[in-house]
Inverse folding.
């Protein structure tokens, strides 16, 4: 049902979807000043790898999902470890040591009940931990190691039909006010899955493509206080916003001017086509392509803001929920206050951010001074 609704939304979107103001034109916005610290203080015998995920608990705990503790050969290693730190960055414990689902860390979140969730891209599983650290629920299934066809997943275009209850390179999860979970099933299946609080599979919407309501790498997902679902459609360089039934509400794009010679975190400098970033093929490395999403809790006035990160020029953007860019900060690099592929953001308030970086193997805590 959800899938049918999503397809109808895609057909209607070309004439009725609310595309955010400024989506096709450059947006002149201010730079936001900020301070930053390298936050984590692991013990001497614990080494950080790529920090893929970060989430905050109700008591200020900081949960880090990292690609450290690598086990196995160079090209088939398991790289996932869930760690807890206190509000001052001091190490507390490891959660799920040697868990069967651990393969390749992607994202972690904490729900309204304080449960810790992770999305493991390598095992195609989403795992819910109780605050105690015990496994409370699992979604998806890891490929059987004994299967004679066990190997990395293929990426056919278009993808093979999705299967209810299973994922192919899952990326993230978020919740609405009723406790339903929305899972971005992300690199191959190109859909949003919806699961009830008791674990029942309710359906999914989306398919691979670039039309409204379609996706090319769902990399991050968030839900606001109005129960609107924001999906980082990274390969299409846009954020698509849906209601809880999968109806497309609006599309947000970030078009903030950046220097053509802006530093690059790694690799060759991306080339923006003369016709603009949307003229590129896959737009993963184009300015404004959303890698990470975070929506702040409501403040005293009931306001929320959206934070979005791209890989190049490596900025964080602050947006209103209707898609207006309010400011930007940072850029690619290896020093404090610079970023190397931000993979997840935790935003407990409008001016406090925790930023997980892949390339710099660290978590920065930012204090914004707008």
């Amino acid at each position: 049902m959800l899938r049918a609704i999503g397809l109808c939304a895609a057909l209607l979107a070309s004439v009725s979807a609310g595309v955010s103001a400024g989506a096709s034109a450059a947006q002149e916005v201010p730079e936001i000043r900020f301070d930053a610290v390298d936050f984590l203080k692991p013990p001497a015998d614990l080494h950080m790898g790529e920090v893929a995920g970060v989430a905050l608990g109700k008591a200020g705990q900081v949960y880090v999902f990292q690609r450290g503790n690598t086990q196995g050969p160079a090209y088939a290693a398991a790289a996932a470890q869930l760690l807890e730190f206190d509000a001052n960055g001091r190490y507390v414990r490891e959660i799920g040591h040697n868990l069967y689902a651990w393969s390749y860390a992607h994202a972690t979140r904490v729900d309204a009940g304080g449960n810790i969730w992770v999305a493991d891209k390598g095992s195609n599983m989403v795992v819910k931990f109780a605050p105690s650290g015990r496994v409370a629920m699992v979604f998806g299934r890891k490929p059987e190691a004994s299967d004679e066809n066990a190997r990395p997943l293929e990426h056919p275009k278009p993808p093979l039909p999705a299967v209810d209850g299973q994922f192919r390179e899952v990326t993230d999860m978020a919740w609405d006010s009723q406790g339903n979970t929305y899972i971005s099933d992300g690199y191959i299946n190109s859909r949003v899955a919806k699961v009830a609080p008791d674990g029942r599979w309710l359906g999914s919407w989306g398919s691979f493509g670039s039309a409204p309501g379609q996706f090319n790498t769902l990399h991050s997902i968030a839900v606001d206080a109005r129960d609107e679902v924001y999906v980082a459609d990274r390969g299409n360089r846009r954020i698509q916003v849906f209601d809880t039934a999968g109806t497309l509400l609006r599309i947000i794009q970030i078009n903030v001017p950046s220097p053509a010679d802006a530093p690059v975190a790694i690799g060759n400098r991306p080339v923006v086509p003369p016709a603009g970033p949307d003229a590129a093929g896959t737009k993963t490395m184009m300015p404004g392509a959303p890698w990470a999403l975070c929506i702040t809790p409501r403040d005293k006035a009931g306001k929320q803001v959206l934070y979005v990160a791209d890989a190049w020029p490596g900025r964080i953007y602050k947006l209103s929920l209707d898609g207006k860019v309010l400011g930007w900060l940072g850029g690619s690099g290896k020093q404090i206050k610079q970023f190397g592929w931000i993979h997840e953001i935790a935003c407990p308030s409008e001016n406090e951010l925790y930023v997980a970086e892949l390339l710099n193997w660290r978590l920065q805590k930012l204090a914004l001074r707008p």
Observations:
- The helical segments are 2-16.
- The first strand starts at residue 18 and ends at 19.
- Residues 104 and 167 are 14 Å apart (CA to CA).
